[in-house]
Amino acid sequence: MTAMSVVPAQVLDAVDAALSGLGGARRRAFHRRLRRWYPDLAASLARLYPDRADEVAQRAVEVAAVAYAVRPKDLRELDETRILTPDWLQRPSMVGYACYADRFAGTLRGVGERTGYLRELGVTYLHLMPLLLPREGDNDGGYAVADYRTVRPDLGTTEDLAALATQLRGEGISLVLDLVLNHVAREHEWAARARAGEQRYRDYFHIYPDRELPDAYETTLPEVFRDFAPGNFTWDDEVDGWVWTTFNEWQWDVSWANPEVLLEYADIICFLGNLGVEVVRLDAIAFTWKRLGTTCQNQPEVHDITQALRLVARLAAPAMAFKAEAIVGPRDLLPYLGTGRHTGLSSDLAYHNTVMVQAWNILATGDVRLAKHALAALPPTPPAGTWITYLRCHDDIGWAIDDGDAQAVGVNGWMHRRYLADWYAGEFPGSWARGLTFQFNAATGDKRTSGTAASLVGFDAAAELAATTPSDTTGYAAARDQALARLFLANAFVFGWGGLPVIWSGDELGMSNDPHWMDEPGHEDDNRWAHRPRLDWDRAAARADLRTDTGKVFASMVHLAQVRASRPELHAVSDTRVLTDTDDGVLAIARAHPSGPFVGLYNVAADARPVSVELLRRQGITAPFDALSGHAVTWDADGLVWLPPYAARWVVDQPTS
Ligand code: GLC
Fold first, then answer.
1. Whose CB among 95, 269, 376, 377 lies 3.0–4.6 Å from 578's, allowing a Cys bridge?
2. What is the per-residue pLDDT across 78-95, written as a single tens digit (0 to 9) for each?
3. Nearest alpha carbon, ligand 1 atom 8
């Protein structure tokens, strides 16, 4: 087989037709990409749609070619830059920020006016929460999309979005947008046409005439929003059937078993890419393939779907990257970054849910045994991928503690999950956290947690102390200092893991839960809105005042971002290992990067704990130096480094000059 013949003749003809208006150099550039990616694209489609593989592959390539032909010049230059810097998301200079455009700055233009604030924080990656036209009324924070090609009118226009993307790019910030691809709003045109009886569009959904199949599926399906949307199917009179609705009843799951759906989304991805979106967040990707007798999550086909879409993007807009939103157990997580046959062909980013859950776990317990076991058990990260590390995001915290991991350290998984949920809801004796219980499932006892980082680490409890016993100023000061220390510790762990840290809006100012979260229509049942406050710009104005909590929290985030950016050891290409031979209060992680070793030390206990200097030496560190404080690390005559309560250290080898 010659190099040329990897692409069938009819595909080449279709490409020639789509690119006929372009000059020779641009046509040849597309053909080079096609020769590189076609076999992998065709293979994924053949596994998904064996009966229609050739036709679907040809149409997918056409989608890419048409988008390539109209890709704006500045974005084509970006494509070249990214091809030259395939590790751009892995670099330690990357810091993410996620917010709702309206809650952050009113409109898209408003966001454009606030980029100085983001740059001050060191942000290079901005995830704007769903902003494509949602259904009216409750829309799950925009995750019920009625039109993927129109921007929410109160935020601006598609042109405003493209202008913002260009502005951000000029300021070194990549725009990240959601692609909600497991479902559309009931009001989306596809769903409307399905209801109008068009068979083509009925086939875009999972619609059943009676309860037979829904009941069969339900026996193994979990319920995501049990409180306000129980069950996974909704009867719809107009469509005259049971519609698969994993999330809310007005979020209709699309059928990825239908290749037309894949082609629609491929086109939407190219559309977003040509607006200047640099990363698409594949919302709820784990749910996209259904299989009877399973949880209908993490099915192997999900990774072929990702591969096919990823390769369409590589043909049309190689600057684009993909982020998988798969909030799944540790063992199911890794394939989202491309393993086995999908190596290098899947998402570039995925959320490290385990790091997030364990960060909260170690703060609550002051004990790292479970975290050590759970984090050490993770297989190595695929080198082409990178984790999103985060302490909070717009969603609740699901207590994903694996039963096996818990058992291995002598803990009952169910009890521990329950304990964490109660602790963070402020319902466990002695708790300093003030979160809210989200989606209590009486049948399984499962509880999840809402709350901002500040409310969860103890700022609200400290404020309560100040209000109830104003004379106890020492008690208040101590509680507040502990909250600050916990927050810094947790953020240092998240920033020092070696992924791409993303700050959830408001947490950089230490904002508490929004007490009025339920006042907006449609929000009353969903307390995730408690931790989605509107950014308080008056508070932000105090960020330079280091006497305030706001100033301290903000400065600590800036500091973490700056130190991180200066440490080549935190480049995500090298893997993170957990060192298990430590005190029960000390989490130690090691990174072996060609530029030198790095050991992150985190004392999660409220008293001083030791680490042996030998542990650092074994990692190749001869002159231990804490990059966070800028001081040499010292040890006593026994060779023990004593870490103060809640201390975080990023230990590297002292430069010997
Ligand atoms: C994702 C989003 C979440 C949303 C769900 C349904 O998990 O993060 O906010 O409710 O998908 O779209």
1. 376
2. 999 999 999 999 999 999
3. 395
